[in-house]
Amino acid sequence: MIQFDQVTKRYPGGNEALKNLSFAIDSGEMVFLAGHSGAGKSTLLKLIAGIERATSGGVLVNGQNLSKLRPSQLPYVRQHIGLVFQDHKILFDRPVFDNVMLPLNIIGFDRRDAAKRVRAALDKVGLLGKEKAMPIHLSGGEQQRLCIARAVVHRPSILLADEPSANLDRAYALDIMELFKSFHQVGVTVVISAHDETLMEDYGRRIIRLREGQFAA
Amino acid sequence: MKHFLYLHLLSARQALVKILRQPFGSLLSLLMLSVALALPLALYLGVESTQAWVGKLTATPQISLFMELSAEDADLAAVKSSLAGNPKVKSVSFVSKAEALAGLEKRNGLDGLAADLDSNPLPDAFVVTPVTLEPGELDMLQKELSGLPMVESAQFDASWAKRLYGMVELVRHLTLFLGAALGLALVLVTHNTIRMQILAHRDEIEVSKLIGASDNFIRRPFLYHALWQGILAGLIAWGLTSWLVATANPAVREFAQLYNERLELRTLTAFELLAMLAATGVLAMLGARLAANHHLRQIEPH
Ligand SMILES: Nc1ncnc2c1ncn2[C@@H]1O[C@H](COP(=O)(O)OP(=O)(O)OP(=O)(O)O)[C@@H](O)[C@H]1O
Ligand SMILES: [Mg+2]
Q1: Which residues neighbour B16 within 8 Å (Cβ) at sequence distance 6 or greater?
Q2: What is the ipTM of this complex?
């Protein structure tokens, strides 16, 4: 479960990205996050992942109040979350396989089981044949799939995807959405942001609309 | 717990493999460090090896009183009785000029030397063993004795040994100073190596942090890298000095034999070797820790 309690996020320099937001996302729910550029979508996701900290208010994730945790404890919260970053954060100096392996290394997964897990994740996103490829040789859509494989390889209970369908054609974007739906169907809490609402409306899920850091009507 | 150990082992092994596969340039800097460390190590061994010998030399100072060549028996008797009455003198032995010449012939295999000489060129001498071992008092005694009638000179046998002892002390201080300076150099060099590595792995570190790597996890490979670097540098330094000792020892032995002494440079004991490797390892890790703390803080997220 994810719960925001009167959360305000002010960046250094006085920029208020989120203003007094309160909402909750149930365990196993699939939710969309909509809003124009600068509305605060990425900021909201980063607060859930403990990458940024709330200026005031409480952020509860899986029963833990992130605002009360010491900075040194935040990494362990992140280990239970899968993240698809808006700017991908792919490591281009190593093949696809090693990129997907990274989260398993971090949680200290047994090496042999890890290789199986990595292949399963790559299979799930349709990249099994490309495990030895360098990421620079992947298409934009394939890079996006690589990010998704890396986000789910350690089987997190929460999956946060920041504009995973940006810059993809509609058919490809729908493929990606189906992928997220399949994770949702096995019980993962999924939060997906996008500024294109037409894609979300087909799914009949809850949409949290943001405008300048507040709920839009 | 087992899992924890497994992770550490994995890190240690990966770091070692990485060091051994390093580009030639970084191996060169490792070698440079080792050569630098070999210097105080060699000095240390030099001091440690000669110490017992030098100590033996200085522990029995003696003052030799050489009489004027024209000294008569009466003069000798006068000096002898004044020495006997001196409370600072422990014992006295007399070496007559004839005995001295005979000794010289025998030692140097110059039989018949005395016969060839018109007169004995050597002086009569008293060898005085003083009560005190304290250098200041010894100097006073030497002055006092050289003032006795018909005494040509009073030579302090131990004076050169004392000088040697002082020199060894100096070298010992130099060793300490060099050791400390190079220990510091070890910290700084690893600090720099690790800093470069962190900068080179910036992206990986950032992504790892973003997906849940703790600071300890990120630091671990760098600390192990530093540990191995320190240990390897120590080992190479040890190898270099062992080689140096082995090469120098025949010459040292031969030299010592000229003075009827047995002297040999020794290598490090197992305990000393372990202590040194522990020290270089810890110092290198200290440098890495400082670099990691400083530079990891600059990589988002915090
Ligand atoms: N690190 C930062 N420092 C200062 N201001 C920031 C920072 N990150 C975001 N902001 C500001 O916070 C506001 C919200 O940014 P955010 O990235 O959350 O928007 P977004 O909805 O994700 O936009 P986009 O669709 O363009 O990704 C913006 O005004 C942005 O300028
Ligand atoms: Mg964004």
Answers
A1: B224, B228
A2: 0.94
Q: Are residues B291 and B177 in the same domain?
A: yes
Residue of higher predicted confidence among B258 and B87:
B87
Residue B5 lies in a domain: no
- B86 and B39 part of one domain: no
Pairwise CA distance, residues A135 & A130, whole Å: 9
Give the total number of structural domains in chain B: 2
- Ion ligand 2 — residues with CB under 5 Å? A 41-42, 86
Q: Final residue of a domain: which of B102, B122, B156?
A: B156
Residue A167 has pLDDT above 90, yes or no: no
Could you write out the DSSP letters of every residue in B6-69?
A: HHHHHHHHHHHHHHHT--HHHHHHHHHHHHHHHHHHHHHHHHHHHHHHHHHHHHS--EEEEEPT
For B186-199, write each residue's pLDDT tens digit: 899 889 889 988 99
Find the closest chain B residue to A98 by CA distance. Answer: B204
Give the domain-ending residue among B156, B182, B197.
B156
| Interface contact flag, A76 B214, Cβ < 8 Å | yes
Dihedral angle over CA of B3, B4, B10, B13, nearest 10: -140
Rounded CA gap, B151 and B129, in Å? 17
Q: Give the pTM.
A: 0.77
Which residues on chain B are in Cβ contact (under 8 Å) with A49? 210
Protein residue with least CA distance to atom 25, ligand 1: A37
CA distance B220 to B29: 22
- CA nearest to A184, candidates A24, A36, A31: A31
Q: How large is the angle between the packed helices A140-152 and A111-124, nearest 10 degrees? A: 140
Domain that holds residue B291: 10-57+164-298
Distances (CA, A) of A21 to A64, A205, B211: 18, 20, 25
For residue range B68-89, what is the model confidence (pLDDT) as tens digits?
A: 888 888 888 888 888 888 888 8
Rounded Cα distance between A39 and A147, Å, is 23
Q: Please list, in sequence order, all residues whose beta carbon lies within 8 angstroms of the beta carbon of residue B53, skipping any fewer than 6 positions away.
A: B261, B263
Separation between Cα atoms, residue B52 and residue B258, nearest integer Å: 18
| Dihedral angle, C-alpha A151, A155, A157, A161, nearest 10 ° | 20
**Separation of alpha carbons B30 and B16, rounded Å:** 13
